[in-house]
Amino acid sequence: MNEKNDTSSLGMADKASAVKDLYKQYVVPSYGRFDLVFSRGAGSYLFDVNGRRYLDLGSGIAVCSLGHAHPAIAEVLAEQGRQLVHISNLYYHELQGRLAAELVRRLGSGKCFFANSGAEANEGLFKLARKFGHEEGRFEILTAQQSFHGRTLAGIAATGQEKVKKGFEPMTPGFRHVPYNQLEAIRAAVSPATVAVMIEGIQGEGGITPASPEYLLGLRRFCQERHLLLLMDGVQCGYFRTGRFQSFQRILEGIPEGDRFLPDGISMAKSLAGGFPMGAFWVREPYADLLGPGSHASTFGGTPLACAVALKVLEVVEREGLAENARQQGEFLANGLRELANRYPQIIQTVRGLGLMLGFELAPSLPGAIQNDKPPSLQMVHRLHAAGLLTIPAGQHVVRLLPPLNLKRAEAEEGLEILSRVVAQVAAT
Ligand SMILES: Cc1ncc(COP(=O)(O)O)c(C=O)c1O
User: What would the mean pLDDT of 197-210 be, rounded to a whole number?
Assistant: First the structure.
């Protein structure tokens, strides 16, 4: 680092403003950031530059599935870093093959492609769908209103929210949005150009809305009948967060046909490598060879380093029973949130979600709001920050909890205690 910009010798208060000044001067201001400057993490906690501790129930937007600075991740990063970081996809290496096999084993007969982010994983599925329909001139992909599929040009075209598109028109053609959880809407929208449907198992950015079992099963049947690919964006809701590997497995638990349900493609990213950037998609047979040599690529996709970390994440999740932990701690948190909603219906209207993907919807206006220009979700998130708890807004009215999958009961209790205190304070104003 340039000595002039090195903040290490500054006092605490100076340090936070020095870091923010660097951003102000040198970082493209495309994010609305909170006024928090972090310097280290440990498990479910983050520490700011003043040494203040925060309980992190957002885990970097559902990314740090093993919490912060997990020793197994630190170790594999160092070990693999010493052995082999990158070779390009011109060559083979064992770890990519092994990781693909692990993912396929958890889903069904098919193959995987590796990328670096959720948007890229979805982009791969869009290309797969276009290739699938190319000879018949079919290219259109139906997605849901309130969906979120990433910030690339195709990602914002696929996303069913106007706010991400504004200012970037014209949109990439070939995407149309229909109401979520309504099979009839899909039936009505399909045109001769339609080639695929993409949905999230649980809408995340849209406000934690799970798909219903009937919708999933109905979509599967409908796509089969009409020769459409059924694509699922599992970037946020997948990867054990709901208590099963993919959210649809949890949603369809106990339903006779549920065991046999499989989409044709699934995108993954976020917690795939526990915070190391990685994305992937899985595609079912008989479509697994549609993208032949030369048709799709990524320089960094599936490097030895990323794959080694992802394999380690899988190993720890299995060894420590973290899917079951997500289910148990999730239920505990959801029950606590529901009690809060019963006690303060003027503040919390509903609680939604599965496992450790939870959201509570706030009333349209909160009592005693000091920042009336800010939506209720932001007002609540700010108040929780002040009380030492990190959560994530989803739209105007929903606050999300996406804790690490190894969240401890005592940490869930601490989170609920802070939430109760803050909601009681809001109610009392
Ligand atoms: C469901 C979903 N899809 C795709 C993305 C895009 O992922 P990335 O930001 O890694 O490109 C996100 C990110 O929040 C997401 O929640």
Answer: 98
Which of 59, 63, 149, 180 to mutate for ligand 1's pocket (most ligand atoms within 8 Å of CB)? 149
pTM above 0.90, yes or no: yes
In this prediction, residue 366 carries a pLDDT of 84
Nearest CA to ligand 1 atom 13: 150
CA of 28 to the centre of ligand 1 (A): 20
Question: Residue 197: which residues within 8 A CB-CB, separation 6 or more?
Answer: 141, 142, 143, 186, 219, 223, 228, 229, 230, 231
CA of 120 to the centre of ligand 1 (A): 9
Domain spans in the chain, listed from the N-terminal domain onward: 34-63+322-428, 72-319
Mutate to test the pocket of ligand 1, among 233, 237, 270 (most ligand atoms within 8 A of CB): 270
For domain 34-63+322-428, give the CATH superfamily.
Answer: Aspartate Aminotransferase, domain 1 (3.90.1150.10)
- Look at the domain 72-319 and name its fold: Aspartate Aminotransferase; domain 2 (3.40.640)
pLDDT in tens, 158-197: 999 999 999 999 999 999 999 999 999 999 999 999 999 9
Please give all residues whose beta carbon lies within 6 A of any atom in ligand 1, as ranges.
61, 117-119, 122, 148-150, 200, 204-205, 233, 235-236, 269
Q: What's the CA-to-centroid distance between 153 and ligand 1, angstroms?
A: 13
What distance in Å separates the CA atoms of residue 127 and residue 144, rounded to the nearest whole number? 18
Q: To the nearest whole percent, how much of the chain has pLDDT over 90?
A: 93
Rounded to a whole number of angstroms, the distance between the first and last alpha carbons of the chain is 47
For residues 185, 188, 191 and 192, what is the CA-based torsion angle, rounded to 10 degrees?
A: 120
Which tokens sit at 109?
A: 């007969």
Per-residue confidence (pLDDT) for residue 9, from 0 to 100: 73
Q: What is the pLDDT of residues 78-136, one digit of tens each?
A: 999 999 999 999 999 999 999 999 999 999 999 999 999 999 999 999 999 999 999 99
Cα(141) to centroid of ligand 1, in Å? 18
Output the CA torsion sign for 81, 83, 86, 92: negative
CA-237 nearest atom, ligand 1: 1
